């Protein structure tokens, strides 16, 4: 850590002590519950602290990586050399009539609960997506016939030079698991969504229905990053995997879920290598059987 001493001293002037973690295991910050240690992990509480921290990393020529809730992230067993900046404490949510404005680290489930509390419909689809709103915009997250593109009116983002830009819905280029945020490596600072007034009982009934469907169909009892692969055009990844006879296939502690073949799960003390090896095996098998290429939806960082 000696080569980080000046960087750490600068961060200590910006952030509270509990917001700077050294040699932090990424198992504690990802839904897969795997991954090596990050040299430094910080959790800024304000946008100003976030910007100042990034400038410190840039000044010290230190690699940094932004994460939200870690729900769609796989960190390799060798960990991450540099600074992980986790936005989970940038989670303020406010309501303005039929609009909800949330900072990038706010959790989708909390926004969904907020919408219900204020009798606003249109965001029920997100009630069980275990991610942050920043990550959801980056990936144009969706489920059960709903997507972020359908509700987002604008997002405030920051580019690599710390310039803050407001992007309207069309400017965000929201497509299937893609966006301008991903394309240009923007950081999502805040998101505004526009919903409609509706009866709270009907909204609650829809949330209950989707929650039941999710619990019935998905292996929520095991750590995972949700759907492991993007949907190939004209196909469903889970069906291709199941039709390849791969349901239940395991490498080390990682397995293709018996409940939903589109999920690779950490069944028992898996390593990141177990998961990556299983991803590769699934890809090769499906390609051989159906001549279809599967591409991971999960983001992969770190060293072997």
Task: Characterize the structure shown.
This protein is of the alpha+beta class and about 300 residues long. It has three domains: about 80 residues, Uridine Diphospho-n-acetylenolpyruvylglucosamine Reductase, domain 2 (2-Layer Sandwich); about 110 residues, Uridine Diphospho-n-acetylenolpyruvylglucosamine Reductase, domain 3, CATH 3.30.465.10; about 80 residues, Alpha-Beta Complex (Uridine Diphospho-n-acetylenolpyruvylglucosamine Reductase, domain 1), CATH 3.90.78.10. It has eight helices and 19 strands. Helix 1 packs antiparallel against helix 2. Its EC number is 1.3.1.98. One of its GO terms (biological process) is cell division. It is an enzyme of class 1 (oxidoreductase).
The tally of helices reads 8
Number of strands: 19
* Uncertain stretches: none
Overall 3D shape: globular
For the termini, the CA-CA separation is: 20 Å
Number of domains: 3
CATH C-level of the largest domain? Alpha Beta
The portion of residues forming beta strands comes to 25-35%
Main β sheet profile: 5 strands, antiparallel
What is the spatial order of strands in the main beta sheet?
6-7-13-11-12
EC number: 1.3.1.98
Protein name: UDP-N-acetylenolpyruvoylglucosamine reductase
Keywords: Cell cycle, Cell division, Cell shape, Cell wall biogenesis/degradation, Cytoplasm, FAD, Flavoprotein, NADP, Oxidoreductase, Peptidoglycan synthesis
Pathway: Cell wall biogenesis; peptidoglycan biosynthesis
């Amino acid at each position: 850590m000696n080569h980080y001493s000046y960087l750490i001293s600068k961060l200590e002037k910006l952030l509270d002590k509990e917001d700077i973690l050294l040699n932090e295991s990424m198992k504690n910050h990802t839904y897969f519950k795997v991954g090596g240690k990050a040299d430094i992990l910080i959790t800024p509480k304000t946008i100003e602290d976030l910007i100042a921290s990034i400038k410190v990393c840039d000044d010290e020529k230190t690699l940094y990586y932004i994460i939200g809730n870690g729900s769609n992230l796989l960190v390799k067993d060798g960990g991450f050399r540099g600074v992980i900046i986790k936005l989970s404490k940038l989670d303020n949510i406010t309501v303005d009539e039929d609009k909800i404005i949330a900072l990038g680290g706010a959790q989708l489930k909390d926004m969904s609960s907020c919408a219900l509390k204020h009798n606003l419909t249109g965001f029920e689809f997100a009630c069980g997506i275990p991610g942050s709103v920043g990550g959801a915009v980056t990936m144009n997250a969706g489920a059960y016939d709903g997507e972020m593109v359908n509700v987002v009116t604008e997002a405030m983002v920051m580019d690599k030079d710390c310039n803050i830009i407001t992007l309207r819905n069309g400017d965000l280029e929201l497509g299937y698991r893609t966006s301008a945020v991903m394309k240009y490596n923007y950081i999502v600072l805040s998101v505004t969504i526009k919903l409609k007034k509706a009866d709270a009982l009907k909204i609650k009934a829809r949330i209950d229905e989707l929650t039941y469907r999710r619990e019935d169909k998905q292996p929520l009892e095991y750590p995972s990053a949700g759907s492991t692969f993007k949907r190939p055009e004209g196909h469903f990844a889970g069906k291709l995997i199941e039709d390849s006879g791969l349901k239940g296939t395991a490498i080390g502690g990682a397995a293709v879920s018996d409940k939903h073949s589109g999920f690779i799960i950490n069944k028992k003390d898996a390593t990141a290598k177990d998961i990556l090896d299983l991803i590769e095996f699934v890809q090769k098998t499906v390609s051989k059987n159906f001549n279809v290429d599967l591409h991971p939806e999960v983001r992969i960082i770190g060293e072997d």
